Amino acid sequence: MARYETLAHRDYMLGSPRVDQLITLIQFNVFRALVSNTFTLGFTMEWLEEDAISPWNSSSFELNRAFCPTSLRPTMLQRTISHHPWIDLFPIPKMRDNLLLAGDSYDETALCNDLIDFCDVPNEKTGLIVWSDPWDPSGWEVSEVFLSKWAWVIKGCDEIVESTNYWRVKRGENMLFFKNLIT
């Protein structure tokens, strides 16, 4: 992560940002946001391990509420359903609950690839974009391609609907009509 960030910054400072790195940079920012939220929550980097279990499923893990943004605080489902910690890192509580309620009914690897896989397999149809503080839902945007494939993940997530359309309008793009895509 640090190596990629250094190379991207160097290219930018030389006045030659590489357009072919834009998709990778967007996915890198999502990954970086998840790492940042890891530390905000007081988690370890064990969420990168395949067999990790969320600290919320442990009675010994205590959240420091004074330093934890409301958007990252665990929902009741997060405390009761055993799950991998990667789900805990998104600042949209309803999204986390949607993932937990889906259980094993979706391809977790495919979803992960559409969200953050940026090293060996850059995905030109990135799923999420992070524009501001990682813990702030108003800084997250969902892509139209992601929405068409993974609509159930953000069903009922009003904050990402609002933030997505905010960022799209800011760029001069048309708003997305989520009601047509989320059934």
TrEMBL record:
A Pfam family hit: DUF3425
InterPro entries named among the record's database cross-references: DUF3425 (IPR021833)
Name of the protein this chain belongs to: Uncharacterized protein
Domain of life: Eukaryota
Lineage per the UniProt record: Eukaryota, Fungi, Dikarya, Ascomycota, Saccharomycotina
Source organism (scientific name): Lipomyces starkeyi NRRL Y-11557
